[in-house]
Design brief:
The chain has about 180 residues and is mostly helical. The chain has one domain: Four Helix Bundle (Hemerythrin (Met), subunit A) (Up-down Bundle). α2 packs parallel to α5 and α7 packs antiparallel against α8.
Length: about 180
């Protein structure tokens, strides 16, 4: 069985490349790109990712990390279960995790835009509402008092983002199927 890519694996690659995005934002970006369109050409998604990362060209083993991550996200979508958002561990300060969540959502929305989410897609009432919600979440302030209540609220928001992302994917795929018939 192939080893799954972890937050730390991606963090090391991004640091080595001197990339301009965080781990969370990079994972969100790839997720948003794949939510809108599954690029048939391997060079298309790699070129788009490289442009946004604004970094040195990855070497073969670094591309392997991105490719494994891309394949995992794609597989999760086809199973109707986005399993995880790449966020810092629960032992990281809540302010750091809140900022990472906002970065993830920002990356997701950017990835959707990069792959050309259409006006018709955004006119879908479900997609429209979820994108509006995610846009507000991307503006989250990382200020917190680290209370138990804040921890609970954070966990609920993370779960909402995960489900919203999956629902956007389902709605966009349903829209594509209607166009094919």
């Amino acid at each position: 069985m192939t080893k799954q890519i972890t937050y730390n694996d991606l963090e090391l690659v991004l640091q080595d490349l001197d990339a301009q995005l965080s781990v969370a934002e990079t994972h969100g970006l790839l997720t948003g790109m794949l939510c809108v369109a599954e690029p048939k050409d391997a060079t298309a998604w790699k070129s788009a990712l490289l442009e946004v990362l604004d970094c040195a060209k990855p070497e073969r083993q670094q591309w392997a990390v991105f490719t494994k991550l891309r394949n995992k996200i794609s597989k999760d979508f086809t199973k109707d279960k986005l399993s995880v958002l790449f966020l810092p561990d629960d032992d990281a300060p809540l302010t750091q995790r809140l900022q990472a969540l906002a970065d993830w959502v920002s990356g997701f929305l950017s990835g959707m835009a990069m792959m050309g989410v259409s006006a018709a897609d955004l006119a879908n009432p479900v997609v429209k509402e979820l994108v509006e919600d995610l846009t507000q979440i991307a503006k989250l302030s990382p200020k917190t008092d680290d209370s138990e209540e804040d921890e609970k609220n954070f966990a609920e928001i993370v779960e909402y983002v995960r489900i919203a992302t999956q629902n956007i994917y389902i709605e966009l795929q349903a829209g594509k199927e209607k166009l094919l018939h």
